[in-house]
Amino acid sequence: MLRPLHEQWMRRALSVASASPEDVPVGAVVYAADGTELAAAGNERELTGDPTAHAEVIALRRAAARTGSWRLDGCTLVVTLEPCTMCAGALVLARVSRLVFGAWEPKTGAVGSLWDVVRDRRLNHRPEVYAGILETECAALLRDFFRPS
Ligand SMILES: [Zn+2]
Q: Which residues bind Zn(2+) (predicted)?
């Protein structure tokens, strides 16, 4: 039931991942509890020179601006790559209910690879996690970006 929806959402995240051609292609989308798209973003670190301008942080900020609340209860964050510590922390602070991600990030991942920030029992909010959605497509996008041409 959920998988086709998550794949559809991941395709949307993939479609915004390369919005800034200089940036590492990662895309993030926030969906409301009723499935409405609230915000979408790609990485903008190179574009803006902002070290915190990861796709997830930008999408969370835009979703909060749109709803008028920092609390994103009931929302789902969909992202093409396993979030880093900053983004995992941000989505916990935003009270996002579900995280759906594509490719694993063994070097910096904070949703099971290096750390598991979103399921740390010491925190009072732990989102549901769905990993590996369209993993092959999400990983290929990154591999092509880093491939020397
Ligand atoms: Zn991040």
A: 54, 84, 87
7, 22, 44, 56: the catalytic one is: 56
What is the pLDDT at residue 124?
85
56 catalytically annotated: yes
138 annotated binding-site participant: no
Instruction: List the CATH code of the domain at 2-142.
Output: 3.40.140.10
For residue 102, give every residue at least 6 positions away whose Cβ sits within 8 Å of its Cβ, in sequence order, or none.
10, 13, 14, 79, 80, 81, 132, 133, 134, 135, 137, 138, 139
pTM for the whole structure: 0.96
- Residue 148: per-residue pLDDT: 79
As a whole number, the mean pLDDT across the chain is 96
